[in-house]
């Protein structure tokens, strides 16, 4: 174990949950794993163009990826307690690399769907591990903040740079980039403990669940599900909205990359504001602004309206999330509600593209998808307000994405 001469741990001690190496692993592993999902608009458009996928197939593909990342949390509860963490993370990293390299050369939709599911299952396992390790750190707020910023930064760079190479290399450039990035960060596995250490919980386990508690928890979880179904449906097909409005792919990708950067500002603003003026007020303002951004995508938005909609959408998305998690934390007495929220997030991310593709196909445009997503946001707002306990903790940036922030 690396220690200084006076017995103190070094910044790169693999047994120290707060070491720089451990924090770097948490941030970089999760950022690489989440990059593709944050690039969903550009990737979806290129897949439709290159492989001739229809909206339903595109939605199903992303639904499979997101569903696999969500499902990974279930077996993770078992393997993280029983196997060598370094060995398992290396295995999942290798699967992630092999899956992405293979994806670059697959033209058959069914095969691609299966390979992307397995690749995302491996990536989701690494994401769950990162979340578990982040919960063990001393300054969790800072680590979760870096976790969010890392994913958004990788997504913004990917959206800004990779579409420029689609003409020469096709969608393969995205998959190869993810494989190379994982190759570069995989050596950080040496900063992992050989065995996982269960994080301490601050919740009060002495009080059993009451009927009111169960009802509020259920409302909060449904609110999270509705929120993510709405936003993932719009985010996956926002590139298609741009194309239907005769905005070229490179221009829309650049706009969306800037929007992703604004996502960092949204979560930072929520952290600075805390509960001022009040959690309920901030939730109301955020939801109204996000619903407005979705409405701005209706019809055939010009470049200016599309830009405003995209920037406002991503800013409010990450602004709202800390307040949603604050509400769930206020309800959580044993840690179960927040754990269930991870499944609701992954489920919402999977259902959104699945639903969106069929709505676009059946309506012959994006109007129905936009209307349903806006209604979903209104429903989510009503449920999360109803779920709020009397006292709400000050929100912090603890967004569990999925499994990605996009």
Automatic annotation (TrEMBL):
One GO molecular-function entry: transmembrane transporter activity
Membrane-topology annotation of the record: Multi-pass membrane protein
Keyword annotations: Cell membrane, Membrane, Transmembrane, Transmembrane helix
One GO location term (cellular component): plasma membrane
Localization (cell): Cell membrane
Entry-linked InterPro entries: MFS (IPR011701), MFS_dom (IPR020846), MFS_Efflux_Transporters (IPR050189), MFS_trans_sf (IPR036259)
Major location category of this protein: membrane
Domain Major facilitator superfamily (MFS) profile: 20-391
Protein name: Predicted arabinose efflux permease, MFS family
TM segment ranges: 21-41, 61-80, 87-106, 112-134, 146-167, 173-192, 213-235, 255-274, 281-300, 306-325, 337-357, 363-386
Gene3D superfamilies cross-referenced by the UniProt entry: MFS general substrate transporter like domains
SUPFAM superfamilies, A to Z: MFS general substrate transporter (SSF103473)
């Amino acid at each position: 174990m690396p220690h200084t001469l006076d017995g103190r741990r070094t910044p790169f001690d693999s047994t120290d949950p707060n070491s720089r190496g451990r924090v770097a692993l948490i941030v970089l592993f999760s950022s690489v794993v989440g990059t593709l999902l944050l690039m969903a608009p550009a990737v979806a458009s290129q897949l439709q163009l290159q492989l001739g996928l229809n909206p339903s197939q595109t939605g199903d593909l992303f639904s499979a990826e997101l569903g696999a990342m969500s499902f990974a949390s279930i077996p993770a509860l078992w393997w993280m307690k029983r196997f060598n963490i370094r060995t398992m993370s290396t295995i999942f990293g290798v699967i992630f690399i092999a899956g992405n390299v293979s994806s670059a050369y697959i033209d058959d939709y069914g095969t691609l769907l299966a390979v992307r599911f397995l690749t995302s299952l491996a990536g989701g396992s690494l994401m769950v591990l990162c979340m578990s390790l982040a919960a063990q750190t001393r300054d969790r707020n800072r680590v979760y903040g870096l976790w969010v910023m890392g994913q958004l930064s990788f997504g913004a760079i990917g959206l800004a740079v990779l579409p420029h190479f689609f003409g020469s290399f096709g969608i393969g450039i995205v998959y190869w980039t993810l494989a190379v990035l994982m190759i570069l960060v995989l050596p950080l596995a040496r900063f992992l403990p050989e065995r996982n250490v269960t994080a301490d919980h601050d919740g009060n386990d002495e009080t059993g669940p009451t009927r009111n508690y169960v009802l509020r928890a259920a409302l909060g979880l449904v609110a999270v599900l509705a929120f993510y179904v709405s936003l993932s449906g719009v985010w996956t097909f926002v590139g298609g909205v741009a194309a239907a409005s005769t905005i070229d792919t490179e221009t829309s990708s650049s706009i969306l990359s800037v929007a992703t950067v604004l996502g960092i500002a949204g979560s930072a603003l929520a952290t600075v504001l805390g509960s001022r003026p009040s959690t309920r007020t901030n939730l109301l303002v955020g939801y109204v602004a996000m619903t407005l951004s979705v409405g701005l995508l209706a019809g055939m938005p010009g470049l200016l309206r599309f830009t405003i909609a995209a920037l406002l959408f991503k800013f409010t998305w990450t602004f709202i999330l800390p307040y949603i998690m604050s509400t769930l934390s206020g309800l959580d007495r044993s840690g179960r509600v927040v754990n269930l929220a991870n499944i609701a997030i992954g489920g919402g991310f999977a259902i959104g593209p699945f639903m969106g593709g069929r709505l676009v196909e059946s309506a012959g445009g994006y109007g129905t998808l936009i209307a349903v997503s806006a209604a979903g946001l209104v429903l989510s707002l009503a449920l999360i307000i109803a779920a709020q306990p009397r006292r709400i903790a000050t929100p912090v940036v603890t967004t569990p994405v999925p499994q990605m922030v996009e």
